[in-house]
Write a structure and sequence with these properties.
Family: Belongs to the binding-protein-dependent transport system permease family.
Membrane topology: Multi-pass membrane protein
Helix content: over 70%
Main location: membrane
Largest sheet: none
Protein name: Cystine transport system permease protein
Subcellular location: Cell membrane
Shape: flat
Order of helices and strands: HHHHHHHH
CATH architecture: Orthogonal Bundle
CATH superfamily: MetI-like
Number of strands: 0
CATH class: Mainly Alpha
Strand content: under 5%
């Protein structure tokens, strides 16, 4: 490996890592938290007996899951200005990722709630709980344990999906890599380095996921 290649790799590492810490990670965290809230509301709407809510939730999930995330980002950032709604790149990215997380994770949460035996609901009713109280105090805590592994996988996938934000001018890790490639003319080296950084982020998150799962296993009856 010659000196030029070493210099390129070393000089590009910190700018990309900084973009990952300052943009990619916050973008992932904010989008995922907002997406989880939206996912829970959507799942509860799907499980309700209110037909308009059920239909609205189904339509939302159908649209988001049936169209590419990249196209959704383009519609939000490049398409909405045509109707008079202009958003900055970060806001557009957060909205796009939040909608995506909300749709996909609503199915995870809905399945987790449905997996809780009806006897748990009946146990709550037997001590005078309402539907809402049984849901909040008995069902949701158990559903959380069931849903942690798939939700953690969704979070890790979102870290990688944030690279799509580069297409709408968000200066996250991948776009910094693209800019460095444009000046160094070393696409293989730089993109491999970007891939390595994403791999490191996801590896750390996988370790955290394993710790969370082990902690939750302590509360599961054997």
């Amino acid at each position: 490996m010659n000196e030029r290649i070493v210099h390129i790799l070393l000089s590009s590492f910190l700018p990309m890592l900084e973009a990952g810490i300052k943009v990619t990670v916050p973008l992932t965290l904010v989008s995922f938290v907002l997406g989880l809230i939206l996912a829970l509301l959507t799942a509860l709407a799907r499980l309700s007996n209110i037909k308009p809510l059920v239909l609205l939730a189904k339509f939302y999930v159908w649209i988001i899951r049936g169209t590419p995330l990249l196209v959704q980002l383009f519609i939000i950032f490049y398409g909405l200005p045509a109707s008079g709604i202009t958003l900055d790149a970060i806001t557009a990215a957060i909205i796009g990722f939040t909608l995506s997380v909300g749709a996909y994770n609503s199915e995870i949460i809905r399945a987790a709630i449905l997996s809780i035996p009806k006897g748990q609901w009946e146990a709550g009713y037997s001590i005078g709980m309402t539907d809402k109280q049984a849901l909040i105090r008995i069902v949701i805590p158990q559903a959380i344990r069931v849903s942690i592994p798939p939700l953690a996988n969704s979070f890790i996938s979102l870290v990688k999906d944030t690279s799509l934000a580069a297409s709408i001018t968000v200066t996250e890790m991948f776009q910094i890599g693209q800019r460095i490639t444009a000046t160094t003319y070393e696409p293989l080296l730089i993109y491999c380095e970007v891939a390595f950084l994403y791999l490191m982020f996801c590896t750390v998150l996988s370790k955290v996921q394993n710790v969370l799962e082990k902690r939750m296993d302590r509360y599961v009856a054997k």
